[in-house]
Amino acid sequence: MSLVADPLDRIFAGNRTYAERTVQDDPHHFSQLSKGQSPEILWIGCADSRVPETTLCNLKPGDIFVHRNIANCVHTDDLSSASVVEYAVAHIKVKKVVVCGHTSCGGANAALSDGDLGTTLNTWLHPVRELRRKHKAELEKLPDDAARAVHLAELNVHSSIEVLKQHPSIKRAISERGLSLHGVIYDIAAGQLRLLEETGNSKKSFGLWSPN
Amino acid sequence: MRLSLGFGIKWDAAVGGGVKPFKASGTLARSFSQAASSPQPFTASFARKQRLSPLSHNFASSRLQPRRPYSSRIMSTEELDKQPPQEVKKYLQQSHDRIFESNKKWAAEQKAKNPDFFSHLNAGQSPEYLWIGCSDSRIPAEAITGLGPGEMFIHRNIANLVCSTDLNVMSVVNYAVRHLHVKHIVVCGHYGCGGVKAAMTPQDLGLLNPWLRNIRDVYRLHEAELDGIKDEEAKYNRLVELNVVEQARNVIKTAAIQQSYAKSGYPIVHGWVFGFKDGLLKDLEIDFEGQLKDIQKIYNLTS
């Protein structure tokens, strides 16, 4: 019997190993976690399997509150992400909100094509296609599709941050307790996070977005 | 699933034999920085990764090692609020920089172990699993299942809900099933879920009301059973489980799943619950075929 026979076995075996090792390392780890969470960061990222936030940030359970969807979009009319933001910012009181796009994003690639993705994905990615339309000239100047996908992912991160800035709880948290928003791109080929520069501002804050 | 669990135990025991536990001395943070500064070959996880897919090769050991190269201490919100403004600013800058420092370190580690690690990932993804879980920071799906980058497609929202009118989750399911052809879909809840608790609280939560309404609806569907449980915590735990079952059912109701299953025999939909007490996943043993048959009486979208 091969040890890779059933993909579900891997998960359960992996989970048992994880639980066992964690307890060996710190017998109180789980009892501490069961008391509650107080993450400092809300991460809005892509569902892409290659961008597991906690792993690639070398962090631990309890560190990052997470929402992941197709192409890390935050749409004004999306109740799911709005609820995540409300819960994380107004109730858990995270200190940072990170929107993370990434290179070779399937969503960005799809938005660059004119293919019919089915009604669900067409609708979800419509705002990204709108970004492509608005930035047609600058996208066309880029050398290849990979570069265009990266740039579209960057534009999409900025766009998500623009939407987040209008969220009532975020507005309040920015003025009352200095919450900050950060746009980053994860480079899959390098395994590295890159901060995006602030848009429309000569003061380069390396993505450290501040309302003041 | 029972078989696979038994298998998991056996496998684990074999692997566990060679595990040298990390010294749990000092504070958690200290033992982390120790681990980070003295990288030791992790024999057990090496054995493990050899047996798993080639993808899990390179990060298995680092993933299972405790690590947290934090130079600064984590402050509670209450504590931070008492600090002078410049201290707050400094603290925020540090907590921000920490991620980039950790990430650089992690990337360098992966590269040192396998120079092709990232270029392999860059070529594309073909995950076997779609995970629909809670946004709660304590349940990073890949970490608690021992999987690495490239292995699991992940959607996380408040209380792992799957609503047919939510374009967000529907896009994820659609993409995972129709484009990535995942083999398993896991809806994973967890005991002690803040979202479920909030939904049991008679309080106006503003913007969260419409989202949490879905959990109140789960209660209503199982009102008789839940009302019969007198112990509050037991009732709350059961609602967490029933919520997972109902959300798994909602996944099965989609056209993408029904059509793919009819054509290819996958994906299979599962309902699990993660417990903080022991860090283990509990399989609610949803009878996928039975549920599918039951659901298709009304929600059949295969033709």
Compact description:
Chain A is α/β, with parallel strands linked by helices and 212 residues long. Helices cover 48% and strands 16% of the residues of chain A. Chain A is globular and about 55 Å long.
**Biggest β-sheet strands, sense, barrel of chain A:** 6 strands, mixed
Number of helices of chain B: 15
Structural class of chain B: alpha/beta
Shape annotation of chain B:
globular
The CATH architecture category of the largest domain in chain A equals 3-Layer(aba) Sandwich
CATH homologous superfamily designation of the largest domain in chain B: Carbonic anhydrase
Distance between the termini of chain B: 30 Å
InterPro entries (chain B): Carbonic_anhydrase (IPR001765), Carbonic_anhydrase_CS (IPR015892), Carbonic_anhydrase_sf (IPR036874)
Protein name (chain B): Carbonic anhydrase
Binding site for Zn(2+) (chain B): 134, 136, 190, 193
Family (chain B): Belongs to the beta-class carbonic anhydrase family.
Structure report:
The complex is a heterodimer of chains A (212) and B (303). By secondary structure, chain A is of the alpha/beta class. Chain A has two domains: 1-36; 38-209, Beta-carbonic Anhydrase, Chain A (3-Layer(aba) Sandwich). In chain A, 48% of the residues lie in helices and 16% in strands. Chain B is globular. At the A-B interface, helix 1, helix 2, helix 3, strand 2 and helix 4 of A face helix 1, helix 5, helix 6, helix 7 and helix 8 of B.
Give the topology, please:
The complex is a heterodimer of chains A (212) and B (303).
Chain A: H1 7-25, H2 29-33, E1 41-46, H3 53-56, E2 64-69, H4 79-91, E3 96-102, H5 106-112, H6 119-134, H7 136-141, H8 145-165, H9 168-177, E4 180-187, E5 192-195, E6 208-209
Parallel strand pairs in A: 1-2, 1-3, 3-4
Antiparallel strand pairs in A: 4-5, 4-6
Chain B: H1 2-16, H2 28-37, H3 43-51, H4 60-64, H5 77-81, H6 85-113, H7 117-122, E1 129-134, H8 141-144, E2 152-157, H9 167-179, E3 184-190, H10 194-199, H11 209-221, H12 223-227, H13 232-252, H14 255-264, E4 268-274, E5 281-283, H15 288-299
